[in-house]
Amino acid sequence: MRIPIILGPTAVGKTELLIELSKKYNFQIISMDSRQVYKLMNIGTAKPTKEENKLIRHHLIDYVDPEEHYDVNKYLKDSKIIEEKLLSNDIVPVYAGGTGLYADAITKGLVEGIPGNDFVRKTLKNIDQNQSGYLYEILKTVDPVAFTRIHSNDSKRISRYLEAFMLNGIPLSKLQNNDQMDKKYQIIFLNRDRKELHDRISKRVDSMINKGLFEEVLKLYKMGYNKSNGSFRTIGYSEVFDYLDGTIGKEECIELIKRNTRRYARRQIIWFRRYADSIQINLSDTDTKNILMIFSIIFNDFWGDNYGRKI
């Protein structure tokens, strides 16, 4: 049996597809989303609703508080524990999400022997707080590969890559350039035609607004949270915090969320295309019925005719 890892850019339609598949197969999802892991961040991360979570169990959702430090090392440890627990109970684990760093950790492991340094980390943090965007420009010079993969608001990962370079003199992305994947897993990369994906992103952002994104962020704002909290340097939250601070207008805020989400989706696609042995499915090329049929064939191939199938 191989364990599927279903990856795709934001708004591609992963959740809807998995809910349909859950009607036929007995599996649970281990989330690969570095933002849905945080509590209180619901609408802006497109977190599965309570109803969707009842249809299919999602793990590592609403897992830690926004101010808590949660990194790929913790994710790897937690996800592996959940994976083994599900397997021991004859429940198939399916990884699903859009965080490429998490996918690399699961399939390739982590680069060993890269120690941290508190002084370097604190220095980078001070620079970031006093000169917003400066560390991102440095990253472009010292590790251009990482620069193309990391969002400009992701200060935690930017600092980690710079810290690793300063301590070792070698770009962390170069150390991570390992194509040896654990054959225990099979990546399935979902994508759509560019225009269709952009339309879906626009509609998703509009839906978030209608569901109360501004109200959600305002509530967090009144609780004392702001962009200085690393978890909120996230598309959707970062822009609304700027709106609440009065630096941008509401319409500009909404357009920035859409633009930044499109750019993020592009970076995700570039990352996922690196997986040479992945099964790639363009959801724009076929209808839902045929997509489900394709997945049934894939799942049966992974698990056999009976294992994992709901009776």
List keywords for this structure.
311 residues; alpha/beta; Rossmann fold; Histone, subunit A; 2 domains; six-stranded parallel β-sheet; 14 helices
Structural overview:
The protein has 2 domains: about 5-110 and about 175-305, 3-Layer(aba) Sandwich (Rossmann fold); about 110-175, Histone, subunit A (Orthogonal Bundle). The chain is about 50% helix and about 10% strand. It has 14 helices and 6 strands. It has helices at about 15-20, 50-55, 70-90, 100-110, 120-130, 135-140, 145-150, 155-170, 170-175, 195-210, 215-220, 235-245, 250-270, 290-305; strands spanning about 5, 25-30, 60, 90-95, 185-190, 280. Helix 2 links the parallel strand 2 (about 25-30) and strand 3 (about 60). The longest helix has 23 residues, at about 250-270. The protein is globular, with a radius of gyration of 20 Å.
Order of helices and strands: EHEHEHEHHHHHHEHHHHEH
Question: What is the annotated CATH architecture of the largest domain?
Answer: 3-Layer(aba) Sandwich
Low-confidence stretches: none
Report the span from N to C terminus. 19 Å
CATH superfamily of the largest domain: P-loop containing nucleotide triphosphate hydrolases
Task: Give the gist of this structure.
The chain is α/β, with parallel strands linked by helices. It has helices at residues 14-22, 50-55, 72-88, 100-108, 118-130, 134-142, 144-149, 155-168, 172-175, 194-211, 213-222, 237-244, 250-272, 288-303; strands at residues 3-7, 27-32, 58-59, 92-97, 185-191, 279-282.
